[in-house]
UniProtKB/TrEMBL annotation:
Listed GO CC annotations: cortical endoplasmic reticulum; endoplasmic reticulum membrane; Golgi apparatus
Domain of life: Eukaryota
Biological source species: Aramus guarauna (Limpkin)
Family membership: Belongs to the ARV1 family.
Record field: transmembrane: 126-147, 159-182, 216-235
Protein name (Swiss-Prot/TrEMBL): Protein ARV
């Protein structure tokens, strides 16, 4: 149960203080009969993780506000393994958005041109393009961090943790679907705001995961975005609708 999971994570040294990012042996001490006491960090003398008493909605709101403490709680002190599924779902949302825009821009109303299989192929193509762009973005981030701070990514677990953080912090892409469904004159502006929000979240995830200042995560995000835009330009030169 909960106690077994806590002991297992403590044995792996997985806990972090959400305030100072130092390792912690435990998040709380269980005195039985429902009596719990939050552990105090030996370094900063603050509660190791105050969010263990918070409602998930409050934690989500703090994460949306890009608070470093909320990110540390989610990444280090919880057992969340939805990053892979979340990444795939975000790509599906982006592919669906592009597919809708492609269908909307088509001027040909010939019924023979609207065959179901042709539309299905367009969606798969958009999913593939979105996947390649996302891969380029992540590759740009990893290359920048590896070049600037190679000691930060020494082991496979370091790469996996950062990848998990980047995928989880891309949850803002889920807003793409409502932005398209509730289409209005300001949809392009909404999409731009969603893109900026995702980039800010990615930067905060890098900062929290690697315990860096603000400058290097932003450099990594900008280089990743540049590489992603380079892939887009390449597709456009090949005559593909992206």
């Amino acid at each position: 149960g909960r106690g077994v999971l806590s002991r297992a994570m403590a044995a792996l040294g997985a806990y972090r203080c959400i305030e100072c990012n130092r390792e912690a042996a435990e998040l709380y001490r269980d005195y039985q009969r429902g009596v719990l006491r939050i552990s105090i960090c030996k370094s900063c003398q603050k509660p190791v993780d105050k969010y263990i008493e918070y409602d998930p909605v409050i934690i989500l709101i703090n994460a949306v506000l890009c608070k470093a403490q909320a990110y540390r709680h989610i990444l280090f002190n919880t057992k969340i393994n939805i990053h892979g599924k979340l990444g795939i779902f975000c790509l599906l949302c982006e592919a669906y958005l592009r597919w809708l825009q492609l269908q909307g821009s088509s001027q040909n109303t010939d019924p023979d041109d609207l065959i179901r299989y042709a539309k299905e192929w367009d969606f798969y193509r958009m999913f593939g393009i979105a996947s390649l762009e996302q891969t380029s973005f992540l590759l740009g981030i990893f290359l920048t961090l590896w070049w600037m701070r190679p000691e930060m990514l020494k082991t496979k677990s370091d790469f996996i943790l950062l990848l998990k953080a980047l995928l989880l912090s891309s949850y803002g892409k889920l807003l793409l679907i409502p932005a398209v469904i509730w289409e209005h004159d300001y949809t392009p502006l909404c999409l731009a705001f969603i893109k900026v929000f995702v980039l800010i979240s990615n930067s905060q995830a890098i900062r929290v995961t690697l315990n860096l200042n603000r400058m290097l995560p932003w450099l990594a995000v900008i280089f990743g975005l540049t590489l992603e835009n380079g892939v887009v330009c390449l597709f456009q030169k090949m005559g593909w609708d992206v």
